[in-house]
Design a protein that fits this description.
The chain has 342 residues and is of the alpha/beta class. It is 29% helix and 18% strand. It has 2 domains: 4-216, DHBP synthase (Alpha-Beta Complex); 241-340, 3-Layer(aba) Sandwich (Rossmann fold). The chain has helices at 10-21, 43-53, 70-73, 82-91, 125-134, 154-161, 200-207, 249-257, 289-305, 323-333, and strands at residues 4-6, 26-28, 35-39, 62-64, 96-101, 116-120, 138-139, 167-169, 181-184, 191-194, 211-212, 241-246, 264-268, 279-282, 311-315, 338-340. The chain has an 11-stranded mixed sheet, with helices on both faces. A 5-stranded parallel sheet has the order 14-13-15-12-16, covered by helices on one side. Bound molecules: threonylcarbamoyladenylate (TXA) and magnesium ion. The site of magnesium ion has 3 residues, from loops.
Amino acid sequence: MDTLHLTTSQEDIETAARILRQGGLVAMPTETVYGLAANALDEEAVSSIFVAKGRPSDNPLIVHISSVEDIERYSLVSSFPEKARKLANAFWPGPLTIIMPKSESVPSVVTGGLDSVAVRFPSHPAAQALISRAGCPLAAPSANLSGSPSPTTAEHVSKDLEGRVHAIMDGGPAQVGLESTVITLCTEPPTLLRPGGVTLEQLRDVLGQVDLSDAVLNKLNEGAQAPSPGMKYRHYAPKAKVYLVKAEDDTFRDFLSSKDKNSTVALCYDEDVPHLSVHTLPLGEKNDYTTQAHNLFSALRSADEIPGTQVVYVRCPDTEGVGMALFNRLIRAAGFEVIDLE
Ligand code: TXA
Ligand code: MG
């Protein structure tokens, strides 16, 4: 198929909304990463998302809304817990996905057969306008081919999905740069399943006790049941081999000084750049996790575009604040391979 390239003009939003109402696929900008959207209540449209991405069908999708009232309007949940209201007040619209008990109205193709549904109210104005003009909730995973890093620009989407989707809407670079935080209210206490722009500390401030799923920071044991199916798949991985390196500044720089300049790339801090002779892809200043998050997926994609790249060494972040989300993505990109020099 020919992929239509759209802006966020009102006219283009109407065009995209029409495509969605007719059961088509539209890649839309959000503040986290680009999403590949379809009408969440149209089974056939939702099924085509899995085909376009090459995504396993047991991996459930997030349902996107453009107001808290949409949850009731489209009767998405069988109950709207008090804790969901608190989270919505504190973090919506924004980079938080809340998992709640699902209603009959949500097709099981959306939830991978689970009896819960993931809901998010994004803050990107174009996403909000598109959802409300489409007149339906939108199921949308990240708009990448399954297994590659999530897209943070319309160009990334086009690299992966040109010719596989009806339209790509360019809404500029994604502000957060990492996928939303995912919390489930189907456990007591609630459990953080995927860290993102909303941090564990912020969630605990609002809800009190929040558990951290083991799979966030550790590799699942062979055969263990993933609390969130997405966690069991290989993710975010460039074609080059990625290693996380746990080391102080000088140790990291010394370690890299012995590496082959033509095949090695360092995903590092701005402060490292003058001290390294291998190819560098700086993510931001050492203590600025927000900027590092914004740049991470773009850097992982760029690593593959540097001719000759075979190995990528990445500085290992702490797991505080947004650092937890960075660590969670990087440890998967690295297939859990950590070089510990501390
Ligand atoms: O920021 C985001 O969340 C982006 C944008 C487009 O909104 N979307 C996104 O979707 O990252 P996706 O499909 O790449 O990731 C959704 C994650 C997956 O790990 C999936 O397994 C999990 O959420 N998930 C969805 N529904 C779930 C459910 N009912 N129970 C447990 N995990 C669920
Ligand atoms: Mg994804």
